[in-house]
Amino acid sequence: MTGVTSGPARAPFDFKSATLPLVALLLKTTDQVTLEADLARRMAESPDFFSNDPLVIDLSAVRDSEGVPDFAALIALLRRYRVLPIAVRGGQPAQMAAAVAAGLIEVPDLVIPQRSEAPQVEVREVIREVEVPVQVPVAAPNTVVIDKPLRSGQQVYARGGDIVVLALVSNGAEVIADGNVHVYAPLRGKAVAGARGNTEARIFSTCLEAELISIAGIYRTTEVALPPEVAGKAAQIRLVGEKLVMDPL
Where is the Septum formation inhibitor MinC C-terminal domain (predicted)? Predict the structure, then answer.
């Protein structure tokens, strides 16, 4: 009997690169009692605000301190509020060693990238026989356009570009972009611009009612009411220093 030779077996898995939006917790104290009290106060109005979001603990603000957080207690505390600590960055050696011993992954300090410039097209105009180069910006190639309502639990991420939403963003839905976020409809869920550190990114909405807005890691929740001049109205949000500034449109 003649044997039948099959082709190479297909590999049962592949490794691929992936991008995962993370929540960052910037610790400003290593005192567990203070952390528990302040977190309880902030989350009192929205105890189910997070939905098992992955989180990185940022120790850069306490790096010069000799204090070492109780990472086991901190991880348990954060999980009660439905965030999942997976990594740590920015601490001094003793802090990082304690974090790794508690099961966190050490990640390198992130460098906030400068805003990438759109590709430029050079147009030359001749005025009185003098050539004047004029640069005309070209639309970003990675813009994501969504024309259907986003329901609670849905998330859309525009990697490397802007996101444009032409329909309702419901409570519990998320729109995330490395660039700008444009919502030409009521924005009631979460809007995250500059997800990878672009401090020049902005958020635009024709009806601002968001439960969370964030630019380059600086965020604001419904714990602080929106100013009356922008609440439910057309507005833009931009980052000035470490403060979110809201302007009516």
Answer: 145-246
Q: What per-residue confidence (pLDDT) applies to 111?
A: 43
The pLDDT assigned to 95 comes to 92
Name residues whose C-beta falls within 8 Å of residue 3's C-beta, 6 or more positions apart in sequence: none
Q: Are 179 and 140 in contact (CB under 8 A)?
A: yes
What count of residues does the chain have? Answer: 249
Using DSSP's 3-state secondary structure scheme, residue 145 falls into: strand
The residues near 198 (Cβ < 8 Å, ≥ 6 apart) are 112, 113, 115, 116, 178, 179, 216
Supply the pLDDT for residue 242: 84
Cα 44 to the center of its chain, rounded Å: 23
Give the tokens for residue 209: 């009612």
Amino acid at 224: V
Beta-strand relationship, 212-215 and 23-26: unpaired
- Please tell me the chain's helix, strand, coil percentages from 3-state DSSP, rounded to the nearest 5: 15, 35, 50
Kind and range of the H or E run holding 193: strand 190-193
Structure pTM? 0.51
CA 236 to chain centre: 17
Tell me, what's the pLDDT at 125? 45
Q: Domains of the chain (ranges plus CATH)?
A: 23-106 (3.30.70.260), 144-248 (2.160.20.70)
**Contact call for residues 53 and 83 (beta carbons, < 8 A):** yes
Who's near 37: CB < 8 A, 6+ residues apart? none
For the cut 50, the answer to whether the pLDDT of residue 246 exceeds it is yes
